[in-house]
Amino acid sequence: MDYKSIKVLLERYFEGETTLAQEAELRAFYQQHTLMPEELARYAPLFRYAAEEQHRLPQKQLVRKQRNRWAIAASIVLLIGISTNYYYKSYLPQQQAQQALEEFKSGMSYLSQNLNKGRQSIQYINYFDVSKNKIFK
Amino acid sequence: MKVTMKLQLLLGLMLLLSTSLQAQKIFDKYENNENVSFISISPKMFQFIAQLDINTDDEETQAYLEMVKSINNFKVLISTDKEIANDFKADVQSMVKKNTMETLMRVRDEDTNVVFYMIPGKNDNEIKRLVMHVQGMPNGKLQIDKKRQVESVLLLLDGDLNLDQIARLSDKMDLPAGEQLKKVKKKQ
To answer: Between chain A and chain B, how many beta carbons pairs sit less than 8 Å apart?
Structure first.
């Protein structure tokens, strides 16, 4: 590729008439060549920058994708964490409480029955007191 | 003067602590014994029970839930072993002595020998601690429910207890007057 054709391409580029392939040609030229006439070297930074940016762009997207993956993983871990926490803080105690309540009920009912047994005898004693009073009065 | 007062306070605190610890002792002793059924509901669990979202029309469950509010400790030991049952007896007696508990009542019939001990609360109607000790009679049957026959039951209850409230938990028809009522209803 000679300098003349590059010069033509440059002119067209600034006129806005180059195709995508021609622009790529320009960028390739500036990346591959460091020594060139002054009038071409003027535009070197422009095309080198564009070339570098084009390389960088896909990498940026990749980083973004990776970040997304991390975010998803983190949120899954968080979700599991929250639900286990809920399970241990709320659901499990609730089940245990239900079971404890059943134990409590059967224990208390047994206690209550025995207490009432005693009360029956107290009533008998009262009855005895009444009859005693009847006899001894 | 000040030193003696402090000493008195310290002694009082120690006495208080020791009484509450003594009662736990007997339950701690059998907690890990394989031949003894052990039930313990901690104050924290009572809080959970009170928070349970049970919407029930069942009057019985309502009564128990109401009771939960005034109770903060519930422990039960059940033994099917005769020797352990005898150990219970000795342990209960030493607990009653050390805690200076009062005997509330004794009920003995052909099947069981039941003794209630208590520590009185602030009012006449209230009891701070209630302990029930049930022993099977030599020729009798101690049944805690329809299936299980055991040798001895020990139950401890802490809180602001009302005997009437506890008595009302079991079927009112169990009382002699209740029996009579039942008969009358059947005749009609």
So the answer is: 90
Backbone angles phi, psi at A17, to 5 degrees: -110, 0
pLDDT, one tens digit for every residue, chain B (188 residues): 677 788 887 877 776 666 555 666 788 888 888 888 888 998 888 888 888 777 667 777 888 888 888 888 899 999 888 888 888 888 888 888 888 888 988 888 888 889 999 998 887 778 899 999 998 888 777 877 777 788 899 999 999 888 888 888 875 544 454 444 445 545 44
**Alpha-carbon gap, residue A37 to B97, rounded angstroms:** 113
Preferred mutation among B39, B45, B75, B168 to probe A, highest tally of A CBs within 10 A: B45
CB B159 within 8 A of CB B72: yes
As for the ipTM of the complex, it is: 0.73
Nearest CB neighbour to B52, from listed A101, A117, A119: A101
Nearest CA in chain B to A103: B39
